[in-house]
Specification:
11 strands; 7-stranded parallel sheet; 286 residues
């Protein structure tokens, strides 16, 4: 009986939250991991076809998250997608990005492939994650330097909570009434990085400064963290697209898919204040 939902990227930002939400609603997620450590996990490696069989056993739907740090992921993902289609998987839900159109680079190519080859599919295109400030690239500089670095200028972003992305993914995976298609997912308000710094400053009681870099400066900064030059350039170009207004839009897709109002950044910061607790500790001891 096909009743499993395979969650690739199952220990990541959205995958871990999705698995939790699926379990809470009575579904049976299977977490794909290169190093499984529990009964609900299965070994899975995009580059190892031998891992596909166990991962796909009894699976009816798959949440697809691209392998990390791969600028053009279709080549890595296509063999598994083809195997899953051949095994009768009924539904694919792909995590892409708001800036990536169908047929474009990176996840845009995977989007097009699913459209052309899968019978059931949906593509989630969220804007930038709130977790970028609490768990990802901006956390160390906020915590250690009281700084955010970007090439976004005064551009605005409707940042979204990964919990809201997971809620939309859960609906797209399990609700047969949702047709094939894609949706841009946003939070409820569009903010500049200066405004994000102000929200963090107010909550933490310490001044967080947004430093506005050029695209070249940001590329070098990202590359110094260990990524390839080409990937660093791609990420930095996304920031300058924000500066040009490419992310300044709001949608009602979270409400339409998941039936809930997306979280705002101020509330997110308050709920996750422990992430930056060392700032308050260092301030009080100075």
């Amino acid at each position: 009986m096909r009743n499993k939902i395979l969650v690739t990227g199952g220990t990541g930002k959205t995958g871990s939250r999705l698995a939790k939400q699926l379990r809470a609603s009575g579904h049976h997620p299977r977490i794909a991991s290169r190093n499984p450590d529990g009964s609900n996990q299965v070994r899975f490696d995009w580059s190892d076809p031998a891992s596909y069989t166990a991962a796909l056993d009894e699976v009816k739907a798959i949440y697809l998250v691209a392998p990390a740090n791969v600028p053009e992921p279709l080549a890595a993902m296509q063999p598994f997608i083809d195997r899953a289609i051949g095994n009768g998987v009924e539904r694919f839900v792909l995590l892409s990005a708001s800036s990536l159109e169908e047929g474009g680079p990176m996840m845009g190519a995977v989007h097009r492939y699913l459209h052309d080859h899968a019978s059931g599919w949906f593509v989630l295109r969220p804007t930038w994650f709130m977790q970028n400030f609490s768990e990802q690239q901006h956390l160390p500089t906020i915590r250690d330097e009281q700084a955010i670095y970007s090439a976004t200028g005064d551009g605005r972003v409707p940042f979204i909570d990964a919990d809201d992305i997971a809620a939309a993914a859960a609906a797209a995976l399990t609700d047969p009434a949702i047709p094939n298609g894609d949706a841009i997912l946003t939070g409820p308000q569009s903010l500049s990085y200066d405004e994000v710094a102000d929200i963090l400053s107010d909550a933490l009681g310490i001044t967080i400064t947004h430093y506005k870099l050029s695209e070249q400066e940001l590329t070098e900064r990202i590359q110094s963290g260990g990524l390839s030059r080409s990937y660093a350039e791609l990420l930095a170009a996304m920031d300058t697209a924000i500066a040009a207004g490419g992310e300044d839009r709001l949608t009602d897709s979270v409400v339409a898919l998941a039936g809930k109002t997306p979280q705002d950044l101020t509330g997110f910061v308050v709920r996750n204040i422990e992430r930056w607790k060392t700032l308050q500790t260092s301030k009080s001891s100075s």
